[in-house]
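Methods: example folding runs. The two proteins below were folded one after another, and each record is reproduced exactly as written to the output file, sequence line first and structure-token line second.
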Amino acid sequence: MGRGMRGGGGGVRVARNLTKQQLGDSIVALENLMQRFIGAVSSDFEQLHTLIMAVLNELNLAEQWTCEKCEETIWKPNLKSIETSDICPSCGEDASASSEEE
């Protein structure tokens, strides 16, 4: 792929000078596209995380506690093969004391 790639379609972009307005419009369109993509991927990951934690909870392989500092509900897998932390992912507080009480 190099200089010889010309013609119609196929993702080949013909070089041209864009006006400031066209460049700005292109950037805004790209930002909007990226925001929609990020939203879709985030939603999929959130659903997947919820499903996995629900299955682990049903199998008694997850534990839950509430962070005393930020009051966020924390779920953590209770699997020997996965190293976990007692640091709250939301605020960074060491939640080991509150997880031992529950």
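Second run, written to the same file directly after the first:
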Amino acid sequence: MLGIKQKEILHLMSEGYELGLDISYRGGYWLQKGGLGRGGESKHDISSDVCWSLRRKDYISTKYRRFPTEAFQLTKLGKKALALAEVK
């Protein structure tokens, strides 16, 4: 079962937002429309606990890691979980 914040992140990723992690000293997560560094709308109120939970459940995986950024993508399992959550 997905929590509200988990569902929101997966939904935004399915709608074209890319989830990123600043792997430099700041270490924060954010979502950006159209891909990281592309100038699209950004959302910075992303909880690291929620992202770690999504990673542990294998709902997201690393897409690429280039200093100072790690980007994530939805996995098949994440897409399935989101589809099931949206049906309810």
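Comment on the second run: The chain has a mean pLDDT of 93.
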